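Hi L., both proteins are below.
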Amino acid sequence: MGPPEEIVGDYRLDYAQPGPNAELEEFLWTMLYEAAQMRKGGETLEWAKQDALLRGYVAGWGRPTDHAVVAVHVPSGEQVAAAWVRIHEAGCAFMQADIPEVAIATHPDHRSKGLGGALLPALIAHARRQPARYAGLSLSVRSSNRAVGLYRKVGFTVSSEKIGRGDEISYVMFFPFSTPVSD
């Protein structure tokens, strides 16, 4: 069972139960599509599901080391944001086998409401409670993405830079589990 329910304004944070969950997997695909800003490039969600790199973040969801926190808009009951971790060596921010990669996204209609700032610390705390002993968490983000400020605020630091999609600079950021979670 997950941690107690958390409320952020009109939103509830739900902790996904371990194991396969086709409905959650489909929602995470939608969120990954948003996180990767694929709409800007004209790609479709179906195209994203065929991309070998992106498949590693979601396909076959439900491994014992897959963990997610989902924001639900309470008035509508709709899932609108998610943060999740997964270990996969093909990820954009792969560092080593005991450092799962974070993905996080919010539906465009629900952005700027504090959901990322609530989801990320909840996910970090959730990952720390798991039986697997992780060294920390990693993520990849475009340097121009305003979420870089959120990641820094909670304790992620830039580990390296690389040229990403569209020849934009992307950061690989790392959160060591020796770092306390900041508010």
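That was the first. Here is the second:
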Amino acid sequence: MEQAQKQEQCHQELQQEKQDQQKKQESQELAKEANSTEPANNVPTGASGQQEQGAPAQDQREAGADQETQKKRCDKCGKKLGLTGGFPCRCGGTYCAYHRYSDRHECNFDYREMGATEIRRDNPVIIASKLRKI
């Protein structure tokens, strides 16, 4: 008798978990559809008029996950970058070990101007005070 009750309870718990997962998937799908059709400045609100806490946080996590997958390939050759995550360049790209140097990926960052600016900033012109002529 007890085994039958335990089995029934276990079966009900499994059904409840499945229903919860389905509801979660449906809400994620609705959030995705809402984001693609609504302007960015509209914020979903609950029944009380306050912002919903779950949906925007999930969307931010999903967007972060999409960015991570995009950044895991070399911008020049498309090679997977692995655990190191590649080499970020000052031009804004992320490159593999071969394309990390500026001459190998057609870098548009002006290193020469950056160096000249640093020198000008770190070494200001010093003008000596004039001496009286005797």
